[in-house]
Predict the 3D structure of the following.
Amino acid sequence: MTSIATQIKINEVLEQLGIQEINPGTSTGSQHFSTGDILESYSPVDGQLIAKVTTTTASEYEKVILTATAAFQTFRQIPAPKRGEIVRQFGDKLRQNKEALGKLVSYEMGKSLQEGYGEVQEMIDICDFAVGLSRQLHGLTMHSERPGHRMYEQYHSLGIVGIISAFNFPVAVWAWNTALAWVCGDVCVWKPSEKTPLCGIACQNIIAEVLKENNLPEGISCLINGDYTVGERMTQDSRIPLISATGSTRMGKIVAQTVAARLGKSLLELGGNNAIIVTPDADIKMTIIGAVFGAVGTAGQRCTSTRRLIIHESIYNKVKQALTDAYKQLRIGNPLDENNHIGPIIDQNAVKQYQQALDKIIKEGGKLIVPGGVLSGEGYESGCYVQPVIAEVENHFEIVQCETFAPILYLMKYSGSVESAIALQNGVAQGLSSAIMTNNLREAELFLSVAGSDCGIANVNIGTSGAEIGGAFGGEKETGGGRESGSDAWKVYMRRQTNTINYTTSLPLAQGIKFDLD
Ligand code: UN1
């Protein structure tokens, strides 16, 4: 083990979370099995092999779906507040395991330890939210147009929820889905990213313990592992009424089409291309904190990462200078060392994409004002540490129009009124998160109005990332249209039923239709 692994006592972390040298990557409740190809999980922090995972074969997948289907028959009959109690216990177990799980997230994925803990906190928060929700799965009542009739709607459990998640939030996004799905009476089958399979196993071990302690059937929480073929199997499977998928727009389009072809439901959380508009009335100090955290937090690998700054020409040089000064203070290195701001990006392939993006910026006529580069030498042996970049570009550049999962921040100018900044902000294919920095009420309200930001998230005087779980999370356009976590996002995990009850002795028809029989 390397010094980094020793530093966080990775062996102790793995032991606490029930991770072995080789782990079955298929699990239903407490039963762990799988015999497919081996998936090796390397840490981007130090390049070390952490552990191995066996993947799910086609016949093992069948077994999982059958177990999940059987579990659903029981679970849906348990009253929702009792299901909430299970989620409450799960939240408590997460509290007990916050340190270990946060460290594993940081070591397997590469985000800073603070962000690793933050991610587990997001899981705890959604559990608390879901516990309250378990007593509030409300439908409406309506007044019938017919005498002696009552109309209302109710929400029933849906069935199996298939969850496909990405490496960048290897545990929280699963919890956003499961905590809600479970109080709704659904059972879950999860395919975590191939890049972070151990985080998946750790989460599964934690919930399996809760299910066992409560004598609940296997299959309420199932885990499967493998490459895109496993995901493909899920999306084609009509026994899974809802597929919730997080990842790239390219992946989401395939998922959407496959699920739609069988008229299933999909909840898509895809790419972002998030901008902050900085107006002449912005508080510059706040702007810099929000923009820098947004751009380099999680090494620019959040779907909510700030990718573009749209700055009014009158303050452009001032903001640019303040940003370049701030970037000089950034420390890149082992994310488990709390002195560092930025850890590695996920793998060598991501490094290649980062480099290609930089080449493309220059080729299209952009200028690198903080030039970046791949770090090497002591502490950077994994080859996954890159320097954050600031580039001056035009919004229409091909490279600016697409999401590069790396710490690259694009600066662009706007002149005139805030409308032109809003047009630039909206002038991309994605529509996840957006923000405006301004103390001008008119600008702020215009940005939030129907003529303003076209994104699922629009903030004033905070950055684009770090959304709280209480709001519905998701975006428009190529971001996929799905909403997860707070507000009424739970409704997608249930099926709505409208009920009309006639308590008279006659059968009047709606719309005044007469249909008499002698
Ligand atoms: C993601 O990057 O997929 O708003 C999710 C945020 C986090 C979630 C990001 N709460 O930045």
Q: What stands out?
A: The longest helix spans residues 113-133. Residues 4-270+480-496 form a domain with the Aldehyde Dehydrogenase; Chain A, domain 1 fold (CATH 3.40.605.10). The pocket of 2-aminohexanedioic acid is lined by residues 122, 168-169, 173, 246, 302-304, 465-467 (CB under 6 Å). The mean pLDDT is 96.
